[in-house]
């Protein structure tokens, strides 16, 4: 994400509302602490730093996911970044059960270009985005196809989390497209794949599944 926001890392910002104290630690987590003398006062994690929320080439917020369990899911929090005179947690709400919304004010996002995604990308990813823009303009891809390419760009840049399924697909693609500079490196990869294949065969045999 934007390098100038990294100076917030390692710091925490609090906000007290009613009997609860909320604490936001950028690039780390969001926690909630009940400020009462009840014997079972609640304290817990509302989310751990996960990925960016990106809208129209702009970082609009930070998603904190996989917090403490809540009913059948995990608590999660979206932190909106808005311009302010000082760094402070300004507002907290719970728009839906176990999903929280925090507003964080900071002078670090006041410049109109401070939250643009494009400048944070590598040259290769910027070119990929440029090509997508051109293809959309020329009518070679649909709006949906354009958004799919952008999502891939953001995932490659590490701004969005890649699903496990996609990660597996990526690994497979890497193996299929392996090019070897030497016979030695080819043999090494062949031995590794042979070991993995044997493990899979043994596992299938163990569970009584015929291998073809």
UniProtKB/TrEMBL annotation:
It holds the Pfam family PRKCSH. It comes from the Eukaryota. This is GNPTG phosphotransferase. Residues 117-212 form the DMAP1-binding domain. PROSITE patterns: DMAP1_BIND, MRH. Keywords: Disulfide bond, Signal, Transferase. One of its GO terms (cellular component) is Golgi apparatus. GO terms for molecular function: transferase activity. Residues 10-112 form the MRH domain. Gene3D superfamilies: Mannose-6-phosphate receptor binding domain (2.70.130.10). InterPro entries: DMAP1-bd, Gtb1-like, Man6P_isomerase_rcpt-bd_dom_sf, MRH_dom, OS9-like_dom. It comes from Nothoprocta pentlandii.
């Amino acid at each position: 994400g934007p390098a100038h926001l990294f100076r917030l890392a390692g710091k925490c910002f609090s906000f007290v509302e009613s009997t609860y104290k909320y604490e936001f630690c950028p690039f780390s987590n969001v926690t909630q602490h009940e400020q009462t003398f009840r014997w079972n006062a609640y304290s817990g994690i509302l989310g751990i730093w996960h990925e960016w929320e990106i809208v129209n080439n702009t970082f609009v917020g930070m998603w904190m996911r996989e917090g403490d369990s809540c009913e059948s899911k995990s608590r999660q929090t979206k932190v909106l970044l808005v311009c302010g005179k000082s760094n402070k947690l300004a507002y907290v709400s719970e728009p839906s059960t176990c999903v929280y919304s925090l507003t964080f004010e900071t002078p670090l996002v006041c410049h109109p270009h401070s939250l643009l995604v494009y400048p944070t990308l590598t040259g290769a990813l910027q070119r990929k985005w440029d090509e997508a823009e051109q293809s959309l303009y020329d009518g070679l891809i649909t709006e949906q196809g354009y958004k799919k390419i952008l999502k891939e760009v953001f995932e490659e840049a590490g701004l969005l989390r890649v699903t496990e399924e996609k990660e597996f697909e990526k690994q497979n693609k890497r193996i299929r497209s392996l090019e070897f500079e030497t016979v030695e490196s080819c043999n090494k990869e062949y031995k590794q794949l042979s070991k993995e294949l044997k493990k899979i065969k043994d596992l299938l045999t163990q569970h009584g599944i015929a291998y073809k």
